Fold this protein.
Amino acid sequence: MYLTVPLQRLRNSNTTRTEVNKWSSTRCSRGVCLTFQLVVFVDMVVIAESDGEEMEFSDIDEMEEAEEDSDVELQRKFERGELKPGLYQEAEKVVKEHKNNVSGLKSKLEQFRLKLPWIERLDFTLEAAPIAPELNAEILEHGQTREKRMKSQNKYFTLEDDPVHNDFVREMSFYRQAQATVLEGYKKLEELNLPTVRPTDYFAEMAKSDEHMQKVRKRLMQKQVGQQISERVKKIREIKKYGKKVQIEVEQQKHKEKREMLEKIKKFRKGKTDSIDFLEGGRSLRGDAGGNRSKKDLKKAAFKRTFKDKKYGFGGKKKNNKRNNAKDPKDDRALPNMRKPRGGRGGNKKGPMGAKVKGMRGKGGKKGGPRGKVNKNKGRSRK
Amino acid sequence: MGKRKRERAEAKQQEEVNPLPSVVPPLVRDSDEPVKKKRKWINKQRVLVFASRGMSFRNRHLMEDMKTLMPHSKSESKKENKDNLKDINEIADMKNCNKCIYFENRKKKDLYLWVANVKGGPSVKFHVLNAHTMKELKMTGNCLKASRPLLSFDPAFDKHPHWAVIKELLVQTFGTPNQLPKSQPFHDHVFCFSILDNKIWFRNYEVLDTDGKLSEIGPRFVLNPIKVFDGSFGGETLWDNPKFVTPNTICSMKKKAHSFKYTDKLHQKEGYNKRKPKDPFRGDPTNEIFQTKLPEKAVSGEKQIFIRKKV
């Protein structure tokens, strides 16, 4: 516990005041006024008696009012632990003055201003050009990509605080200011019949050397190529992913069907009265490789396959190759649109055609001779 | 391409663009007649561009870029920092220059830029930040070495007198004079000065076509104005930037902030030691009175409580 009591005030000079670890009084009792000198250390509070004089009440009041602010400050400082033991001297506050000599500036401006026509100066003071829609789109895109990238890393990311995006927007605003100047400037220059844009075939000394420009171009090309490659790689990845998905699906479907089939067979084996119809018809286990086919189509395809197998497969047809039975000479199947033999030819059976005809009729079985035409349609309707 | 071819090409272009004067000079001229002076080049600005010792590579390249972009510039060897700034006026006088751009380097890292009108005019001191040179590969544009740039200023330059003075100085210093013998015909680049956050942002764009398509060429930097002086490299301060913080102050603040880490840790440890309880927390034994156990859940020894002994 400690007392806060007004302390003796030392007067060294008229201008400066010295305060010795004072405490402001908080309406202490008007009876007795003790003067103490409190010397404060960090952890302890030591009260040391000073050789004080007794003060009159009026003096106390005056002191209080005059020194209230600084005393309050001191108290606060003590609470924070900033006061160190020793004498405290109130320093004079130095307020830094900032000069702004408006009249001086204006007179100076008048003095040194270049009073020549505008063409000598070529300066423009214009507002920035309005945002072109392409630029706006670019800014939005930049913001979106930036947000997407940073949100994945840091959930407290906001676009307003992002320095990269703000930088981009700032550069765009400078760009627009320059654009406005160019549009205005070129108009003025054309009125004065002065050349404006540099044509592409104008060869003169440039600010940057040709080798440097080659480096720049190379870098741009590399960037472009890099972008293309990464795009392609992304696409391939996407396709692979999709392909993998489809493959998995198809496999699962296959397995599922197989399982079902086996279960059905099991059921049938175990004595369920369901017929064995599920084995025939329906889709084959091979799956719908070429999409959904109708039953008719499947029958036709199956028939065609089996027929071809019989005829050409496994050494071809064997059974009915060589036969000489009663059926064949008759050959009562309708000949397909063959020309009826004319009289001359018909009568003369000794000519080349005649021989052929004879030969055809004579041999039977195979319709044509050794080099005869074999009618593959076999009497059936020609398409 | 050879120099002659280039000159021929240039001459051709000039002829195409600027048609022959209607007044043809006479075929015979008297040798005693004084030669008529060409009076087209009226705006005679010559800028002295040089630096002090202790320049870093980036700042040196920045200075070189400025020299290439300003055909009306002259260079000078390095100056000692200890020498008085007022001597620069004499150096400029010797070289017959009426403007000066001086790169003052301090501590081998801070760059201050002085732009001054040597003959009695105002001078400005800037602190240069975020300098990027022309040689960076991201700057894809290119321009003629001695073509006259269009100067673009933010409307904010007209709002305060100190900005107006700075603008005038920049126009006279950075703008290539009209009909300078070294200058080239086309206007294919723009110097863009904008005010943002009380600083001047400088950009240099190449004009690709008349629609206003631009591509960045040249150096880019940010100028933070410190003071505007009445005279060249000295004199009365006309304007003082209240928001300017010296790089030394920033550095010291950073260091202090760094030290706070250590002192904060110490304070935290102290606080914890004070708050740490010396004895472990002991529960109140009277709390167990009201904890009842169901007879079904009683474990081996406790079952005895629920078994009534027959008397």
